[in-house]
Design goal:
Strand content: 25-35%
Mean pLDDT: 90
Radius of gyration: 17 Å
Protein name: Adenosylcobinamide amidohydrolase
CATH topology: L-amino peptidase D-ALA esterase/amidase
Distance between the termini: 30 Å
Helix content: 25-40%
Number of strands: 12
Structural class: alpha+beta
Pfam family, one: CbiZ
Low-confidence stretches: none
Oligomer: single chain
CATH class: Alpha Beta
Organism: Reyranella aquatilis
Largest sheet: 8 strands, mixed
Number of domains: 1
Length: 232
C-alpha cells in the first residue's frame, strides 16, 4: 500500500511510506511540492469568521494534529464520509481519496459572488509511478475532468444546466520521486490515451460519484428530520 489512512475527527490523515512529489492547489503547499503527510481538517462556519485568517487557522489545526508540515485540505463535510477508489491499468495504480460536499455547487462560467452555504470537494490522487513535471500537470487536468464528469453524471442542475463542481474545490496529485525504490520508470505523459490517465480517471470518477451520492442521501435524511440548514 502506498499510504496509510486514519480517520479521527476532526482529522483525516494520510501518510505515505516515503515523501512524494505533489502538484495541486490547496491553502498550504500549493504548486509543486514534496510531502509525506496529507490531512483533511473538518471545520464549521463558526470557525472561520471575518477576522480569522484561513491560512493561519489551517496551519494551527495541522500542528494540533501533530503534522506541522503536512499538505492540508479544509472542509465542512463530515470527514467520516470520505471515499476511496483504486484503479490498476497495465500495472500502474491510481488511488483516489476524496471528501465530497456539494452545498456550494456551481456551474463553471456562472460564478456566485457569495456562496450561500459551505461545501467543497477535496481530492488527493496518488499514482504508483514517477511523473515528469509535464505529466503531473496533465494528470491534474485528468483529475479535474474525471471529477467534473462524475458531478455532471450525478445530475444536479443549476439554473437549467448541470453543476460542474463547487467554488472551493481543491485537487492534489502525488507520485513517487524519480529514482525512488520500486517505483518504476518515470512517465512523461498522463493523458486520456495513456495507462496513467485511464487509471487516474477511473479512480477519481468512482470515488467522486460515490461521494456525491452519499452527500445526496445525507442531505435528504437531514431535511427529512426537519432541519432547514444544509448538512455538513
Amino acid at each position: 500500500m502506498p499510504f496509510t489512512l486514519d480517520c479521527a475527527p476532526p482529522f483525516l490523515t494520510l501518510r505515505f511510506a516515503e515523501p512524494q512529489r505533489t502538484l495541486g492547489w490547496s491553502l498550504l503547499h500549493p504548486g509543486f511540492a514534496v510531502a509525506r503527510d496529507v490531512v483533511w481538517v473538518e471545520v464549521r462556519n463558526r470557525d472561520l469568521g471575518p477576522s480569522v485568517d484561513p491560512l493561519e487557522f489551517l496551519a494551527a489545526r495541522r500542528a494540533e494534529a501533530g503534522l506541522p508540515d503536512a499538505l492540508a485540505f479544509m472542509t465542512s463535510r463530515d470527514i467520516s464520509r470520505h471515499h476511496r477508489a483504486e484503479r490498476t491499468v497495465e500495472g500502474i495504480v491510481a488511488t483516489c481519496v476524496t471528501t465530497v460536499g456539494l452545498a456550494n455547487a456551481e456551474r463553471v462560467g456562472a460564478r456566485k459572488l457569495r456562496a450561500p452555504h459551505a461545501g467543497t470537494i477535496n481530492t488527493l490522487v496518488h499514482v504508483s509511478v514517477p511523473l515528469t513535471d509535464g505529466a503531473l500537470v496533465e494528470a491534474l487536468s485528468i483529475v479535474s475532468e474525471a471529477r467534473t464528469a462524475a458531478i455532471v453524471d450525478w445530475g444536479r442542475a443549476e439554473p437549467g444546466a448541470a453543476v460542474t463542481g463547487t467554488g472551493t474545490d481543491c485537487i492534489v496529485v502525488a507520485s513517487p520521486q524519480s529514482g525512488s525504490p520500486q517505483s518504476g520508470p518515470q512517465q512523461a505523459y498522463a493523458g486520456l490515451h495513456t495507462a496513467v490517465g485511464e487509471a487516474i480517471g477511473g479512480a477519481v470518477y468512482e470515488a467522486t460519484l460515490e461521494g456525491a451520492g452519499q452527500w445526496q442521501q445525507d442531505f435528504a435524511a437531514f431535511i427529512a428530520a426537519g432541519n432547514v440548514a444544509v448538512p455538513r
